[in-house]
Amino acid sequence: MSTGDLYTGREQTLVKHFILRNCLERFAIIVGSRWDTLTYVDCFSGPWNVQSEQFQDSSFAIALEQLRKARKIHKDRTGRTLTIRCFFLEKKRSAYDKLKHFTDQIADVEIKPKNKALEEAVQDILDFVKQGGPKAFPFIFIDPTGWTGFAMATIAPLLKHKPGEILINFMTEHIRRFVDSPQQLTQDSFKRLFGSGEFKEKVKGLAQKDREDALVTAYSECVKQVGAFGYTSSAIVLHPGKDRTQFHLIYATRDPKGIEVFKSAEKKAMAVMEKARREAHKREREERIGHSQLGLSFDNDTSQDPSTYFLSLRDRYTSRARAAILNLVQTKKQLAYDEAWSSSMTFPLTWESDLKKWIHEWEQDGHLETRGMKKRQRVPQLGQNIFLVWKGTRTSSSRGQPG
Fold this sequence. Notes:
Layout: H1 3-6, H2 11-32, E1 37-42, H3 59-78, E2 83-89, H4 93-104, E3 110-114, H5 118-130, E4 136-142, H6 152-160, E5 165-170, H7 172-178, H8 184-194, H9 199-203, H10 208-227, E6 231-238, E7 245-253, H11 256-289, H12 296-299, H13 308-332, E8 334-336, H14 337-344, H15 352-364, E9 368-371, E10 387-390
Parallel strand pairs: 1-2, 1-4, 2-3, 4-5
Antiparallel strand pairs: 5-7, 6-7, 8-10, 9-10
Helix pairs in contact: 2-3, 2-11, 5-6, 6-10
């Protein structure tokens, strides 16, 4: 069974695992050059709905694969042997038994499976991380099936742990559907998720898509504030068969390099997602009207172009990011490139190449000057004390077109 076949009917999980895989691959290599121990914590391990008998399509098996690869790379390059430690948490007994059977077969990695709910296991996780020694760096993955079980107060000690990075599956579709539920128990659960009820004011009266963005932004800001993270970003994962968001993956780090890794993984994952969505649409259509009636034109369709919906989303977020950076540089008159980069990278579907394109356009129009670049340097880079100096007039255009 191919990797693609493992995710038939759950293409959103394919995208999630693709981002996790790519993040961990780079994370382990970069962090492993400075730290002796890499600790991976999976707070909702499962396994859930896996198709592979070897659990190849589970987050914990993917993590082990990437961490082992990084260990081999470091061994080959430097002779150093990284210590890999994993904490796999699962509260459902039937799933835990499968998880335990899997981990019992592994001898080259220290793994601690735990049959507990996250609310009861936070101190166990912290103790496990601490046991890795002063040169241990944790990566924590929170991947629930809903919006309960990881209240902000519950995960706060994990967010606050330094060093550390965290990836959270924010179940956007469920949250968007039930956020206005009149049930008091549901409302209380959302207050626990966000840490307070303040988010309600930020989404009040907004249209559906704006409300979705506001919910993700509010949650990301809570994570950033509670954990004192320097940077957060999010990636959209679309429903495989419908033009709507399934969930967001929210990433938090204290190092800009982490955001570079996450945004690179996001960009690659979007191509994977669009391909998977095309295949899901084709499969659904075949099931609905029959393969023989589709016609040669559909069978021979080899288009690799992104969907109209995806392109509309990309235009939405790049336009907003562009306007935000333009407002910053016009307000401050002299804006550090690093700050412009950090601000633009908080938007999904927006990449550093977009930021550099906008800067080039503003320079060409005579509105902006870039200062601090080295001789013959063509584009600004992070960490080089480069500044964007605004020379044009201020504009109030919502799309950020200089006047």
